[in-house]
Design goal:
The protein is an alpha/beta fold and about 475 residues long. It contains 14 helices and 19 strands. The protein starts with 5 loop residues before the first helix and ends in a 17-residue tail after the last strand.
Length: about 475
């Protein structure tokens, strides 16, 4: 148990920012939407501010600022490699704009062959770790158990069924919907024994648990891992793909331009070695610095300490939610196993659509949550037990620009700075909503499905404007 959790709130920019409510009050914002994006760390902002006076172009610039920028851009790459336990001799770190771009790059650059072109992926994947593979290979979706966990028996069956044809297993390290953590190293042993490689989408896992790629000689090693800075307290638009150097040392880059070649003539191109081969154009130096600083701060705190704190919050929340009638939790709802999952809890409340519940929480209690399908439609439909007939009816409605009946859930998710008081506020809000103790008359927009309070509009320019001095 952490001794001073309040100190972690002090690391976060805007943790106590006041936001307006429907009744005219302003209250401190309670952010329970960390699985989507985390707020910025103050040390990250401070590091960026210190760096900006030296910010310049990187690679081949001869001026002092350019040399300094280049040096710390490469230091940021090393920081990412250290954070995931990668070996520079075997792995390369390629910066991207987010995990989605990283996964698309890997899908385009992976060395599939006509004989070996099957990808196994779970049905719990974020769309970013599903849709790119559909365009690159023959995808086999692995079955799930009723509680949302991977059916490992089906995994074994599909490995055997497509023996010799499976090139890659790609799976989320932890679900952004239920917080379920997958046994990625155990799956890696099986994948490697079948002659396949394994990629792990760590966008959701890495901010909460230690990630270790391992040596290529270890059967349990991970061949590729993917990170996203905006989920790790560094919102400057950076992602990272860390993967086998031999994969990126062959073939041509998926994007072509400056910064990734050794020499170009009118009829030939000599591509650079990885990672430069896959970083076309001027890189996001500031984003790389921000991500590296966030990783340094997380290492200072200790990923074990982060995990303990969030497990304590998750256990506390699950116990509190279990006392509320009409609340349905999806996935693992057992407080006793909170340490074996992430602090991501999807739920629904009887009598309220997910659209309406999320709107009331935001407009009347200042609590930020996420609702919908969380960019993991097949997984959410599985958890909600939506059959094909229902799904097709909703699809037809969407084609008519009517999203009012789109299935979904409300999700709360914890960051390292959240406290038990945030959980208490959320539970209290649910109790009041159940009793009808909210003020607004909410109107649903058919095109988006979202609810908004009638005759109330926020002037966002009162809080921020471009070019102003607020």
């Amino acid at each position: 148990m952490l001794n001073t959790p309040v100190s972690f709130r002090n690391l976060i920019i805007g943790a106590d920012t006041l936001v307006p409510l429907l009744d005219g009050r302003k209250v401190p914002y309670i952010n329970l939407d960390n699985a989507a994006s985390t707020p910025a760390m103050l040390p990250v902002q401070q590091a960026v501010d210190r760096f900006l006076q030296y910010y310049s172009s990187v690679h081949r610039g001869t001026g002092f600022k350019s040399q300094l920028s280049t040096h710390f851009y490469e230091e940021a790459r090393k920081a990412v490699m250290r954070f995931v336990g990668a070996n520079p001799a075997d792995h390369a770190c390629i910066f991207s704009k987010n995990s989605t771009e990283s996964l698309n790059k890997l899908a385009r650059r992976f060395p599939f062959t006509s004989q070996k072109n099957v990808v196994l992926l779970s049905t719990m994947e974020h769309h970013s770790n599903d849709l790119p593979w559909r365009a690159a290979a023959n995808v086999v979706h692995l079955r799930l158990l009723p509680d949302g966990r991977l059916d490992e028996g089906d995994f074994d069956l599909q490995l055997e069924k497509y023996a010799g044809r499976v090139a890659l297993v790609t799976i989320t390290g932890a679900s952004n919907v239920t917080g379920i953590i997958n046994p990625v190293h155990r799956l890696a042993v099986k994948a490697h024994a079948a002659g396949a490689q394994i990629a792990v989408d760590c966008a959701q896992l890495a901010p909460h648990r230690k990630v270790s790629m391992g040596s290529l000689e270890d059967p349990a090693h991970l061949d590729y891992v993917i990170l996203s800075a905006h989920k790790m307290y560094a919102p400057y638009g950076t992602g990272a793909l860390v993967g086998r150097r031999d994969t990126f040392a062959q073939g041509e880059p998926d994007l072509r331009g400056g910064g990734e070649v050794e020499i170009v003539t009118v009829d030939s191109v000599l591509w650079s070695e990885p990672p430069e081969r896959d970083e076309a154009g001027s890189p996001n130096v500031v984003g790389a610095i921000a991500l590296a600083e966030a990783l340094v701060q997380l290492e200072k705190i200790g990923m074990d300490a982060v995990a303990r704190h969030e497990a304590e919050l998750t256990e506390y929340a699950l116990k509190k939610l279990a006392t509320l009638p009409g609340v349905h939790i999806y996935g693992d709802a057992d407080p006793a196993t909170a340490r074996d999952r992430l602090g991501v809890i999807p739920l629904n409340l009887d009598g309220f659509s997910h659209f309406l519940l999320a709107a009331i929480l935001g407009h009347e209690f200042g609590i930020g949550v996420r609702n919908g399908c969380f960019c993991a439609h097949p997984y959410v439909l599985h958890l909600l037990q939506v059959d094909d007939r229902h799904s097709e009816r909703v699809r037809q409605q969407i084609l008519q620009h009517d999203r009012r009946e789109v299935p979904g859930m409300v999700r709360i998710s914890f960051g390292l700075y959240n406290e038990k008081s945030d959980v208490d506020a959320f539970i209290s809000a649910l109790e009041k909503i159940q009793r009808g103790e909210f003020h607004g008359t909410y109107i649903q927009d058919p095109r988006s499905g979202e609810f908004h309070p009638q005759a109330w509009e926020i002037r966002f320019e009162d809080y921020f404007d471009l070019g102003g001095d607020r």
